[in-house]
């Protein structure tokens, strides 16, 4: 059985940092980020997920992740944070 991949973006409540990643289980991955299990995100805890996109396969999820990490992609994510909830 093939798992669907998700691209997600999380926001550091501590210092306004955005982190983009991919996972088959973004909610579980967020827990890992908040427990300090990822070296690059550990100092910026706590994190809150504000964007999640179901992609399907890993290859396309990786392409989307790379886009969201680009300048244009980061501006798109920042625009989502500026919108009132």
Structure description:
- This protein has three helices and three strands, in the order ββαβαα.
- A hairpin with a 5-residue loop joins β1 (5-12) and β2.
- The longest helix is centred in the last third of the chain and has 12 residues, at 58-69.
- It has a single domain, classed as GIY-YIG endonuclease, CATH 3.40.1440.
- Strands 2-1-3 form a three-stranded antiparallel sheet, sandwiched between helices.
- It has helices at 26-35, 58-69, 71-82; strands spanning 5-12, 18-23, 47-56.
- It is an alpha+beta fold.
The succession of helices and strands, N to C, reads EEHEHH
Mean pLDDT: 94
* Cα shape: globular
**How many structural domains does the protein architecture include?**
1
* Gyration radius over CA: 13 Å
- Largest beta sheet: what is the strand line-up? 2-1-3
Span between N and C termini? 36 Å
Classify the secondary structure makeup into a structural class: alpha+beta
List low-pLDDT spans.
none
Give the name of the CATH architecture: 3-Layer(aba) Sandwich
**Percent of residues in helices:** 40-55%
- Describe the biggest sheet? 3 strands, antiparallel
Question: What attributes characterize this protein structure?
Answer:
single chain; 85 residues; alpha+beta; GIY-YIG endonuclease; three-stranded antiparallel beta sheet; 40% helix
Topology of helices and strands:
Blueprint: E1 5-12, E2 18-23, H1 26-35, E3 47-56, H2 58-69, H3 71-82
Antiparallel strand pairs: 1-2, 1-3
Concise overview:
The protein is an alpha+beta fold. Helix content is 40%, strand content 28%. The protein has a single domain (5-82), classed as GIY-YIG endonuclease.
């Amino acid at each position: 059985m093939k798992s669907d991949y998700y691209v997600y973006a999380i926001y550091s409540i501590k210092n306004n940092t955005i982190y983009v990643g991919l996972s088959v289980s973004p909610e579980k991955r967020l827990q890992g980020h908040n427990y300090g299990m990822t070296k690059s995100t550990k100092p910026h805890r706590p994190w809150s997920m504000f964007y999640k996109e179901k992609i399907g396969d890993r290859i396309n999820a990786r392409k989307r992740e790379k886009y969201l990490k680009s300048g244009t992609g980061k501006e798109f994510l920042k625009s989502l944070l500026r919108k009132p909830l």
